[in-house]
Write a structure and sequence with these properties.
Helix content is about 25%, strand content about 25%. The chain is of the alpha/beta class. The protein has an 8-stranded mixed β-sheet, with helices on both faces. The chain binds cytidine-5'-monophosphate.
Length: about 220
């Protein structure tokens, strides 16, 4: 099936790592599995895929840009303004250490005070650029989906895929996911628990319908 032939699809995956010193970082639990599954599924369906990732990419037919920090991810994502679809599945740190210590912090110096500063909002930058791409955001939530619906409306994305990372079979590191898909008008559809690859294919089906104006 090559129903996405001619599409350029950009996918981000993994969790960013924000350095504290040369050996330590602030990170998160994202495994990159959801983003990897989307990149693989889109490539299998004929799209030209670029995967911007902090983790080991899958063996798939596409380009890979390896990054580590939110800044590096932002630069890579914002340099690609000719995409048909942008899927931001990465868990991007919201804050990073304001200063990176040049030398490894030592226990002997006692607990450090680490001042944080905000990272760039990559997704907001993509929306601002208004390149005509269909934009998909992800939201890892812990509990009520009300916040995710508010976020979908607030962020200006076309689709927000929300998942409760505390629900069984869902979230970080699992091979399955139970997501709720929220559209730009605030309407939401809960999808049943399925493999991340099935979520990926169903999401691509939805994007196909949206981009051909039949949704
Ligand atoms: O607000 P929240 O972090 O839950 O939003 C998640 C979405 O925003 C994800 O698609 C994530 O990739 C994106 N994001 C971003 N830049 C940030 C933080 C999150 O693009 N600094």
């Amino acid at each position: 099936m090559a129903d996405l032939a001619g599409w350029r699809v950009l996918v981000t995956a993994g969790g960013t790592r924000e350095p504290i010193d040369p050996v330590r970082y602030i990170g998160n639990r994202s495994s990159g599995k959801m983003g990897n599954a989307i990149a693989e599924a889109a490539a299998d369906r004929g799209a030209a895929v670029t995967l911007i990732t902090t983790v080991t990419p899958p063996d798939f037919e596409g380009s890979v840009i390896e990054v580590e920090t939110a800044d590096q991810m932002a630069e890579a994502v914002w340099s690609m303004n000719d995409q048909d679809v942008v899927v931001m599945a990465a868990a991007v740190a919201d804050f990073r250490p304001a200063a990176v210590h040049e030398a490894k912090l030592s226990r002997r110096d006692g607990p450090p005070v680490i001042e944080l500063e905000p990272t760039p909002d990559i997704l907001a930058g993509v929306v601002e650029r208004a390149t005509g791409a269909t934009i998909v955001g992800f939201a890892a939530e812990t509990g009520s989906l009300d916040r995710a619906v508010a976020k979908a409306l607030d962020k200006g994305v076309d689709v927000l895929v929300a998942n409760d990372v505390l629900a069984e079979g869902s979230g970080f590191g699992t091979t399955t996911n139970a997501v709720t898909v929220i559209l730009a008008d605030g309407s939401s559809q809960p999808w049943p628990l399925m493999s991340k690859r099935e979520v990926a294919d169903r999401l691509l089906d939805l994007l196909l319908a949206m981009r051909s104006g039949s949704d």
